[in-house]
Amino acid sequence: MLPKMPHHERERFLAEPRVGVLGVTDPRGERAPLLVPVWYHYEPGGDVVVQTGREMVKTKLLLEAGRFSLCAQDDNRPYRYVSVEGPVTSVTDPADPEMREAMAHRYLDPEEARAYLKATAHQLQGDITFRMRPQHWRTADFAAFAADFAEQGKSDSDG
């Protein structure tokens, strides 16, 4: 069994600026779910928010499926991840400009964010904002496991 994160830790972890991997069902033929890296926004207790181009494959699949999952991870040891899945609760078309600005500042330093927003201003009318309410959470925090493993290694070498 994976070592799970307590509720407050999983919420805080997901709220940190990480690139997420969005997953959505892909009914085209015999394909696996579509998985793509995305910027996202999340505040504890709220919705997961993503923005994407109106003409993107993932947009069409999100609209058809009406739900998606998102996984964020820390690939530094000890490894941790949070995965959430749930229904799309709203679609804003065109994209919410305040959310676009918030996401740019979440992932970039202030100067880079301003430059990014200016350079991509034309995309705003072609993007859509999706909000998803997390229903199902999967988490793992291997810190306790790593500590136990390290302690076992110490006791083995003491013998």
Automatic annotation (TrEMBL):
It comes from the Bacteria. It comes from Streptomyces luteoverticillatus (Streptoverticillium luteoverticillatus). Coiled coil: none annotated. Gene3D superfamilies: Electron Transport, Fmn-binding Protein, Chain A. This is Pyridoxamine 5'-phosphate oxidase. Pfam families: Pyridox_ox_2. One of its GO terms (molecular function) is oxidoreductase activity, acting on the CH-CH group of donors. GO terms for cellular component: cytosol. Keywords: Oxidoreductase.
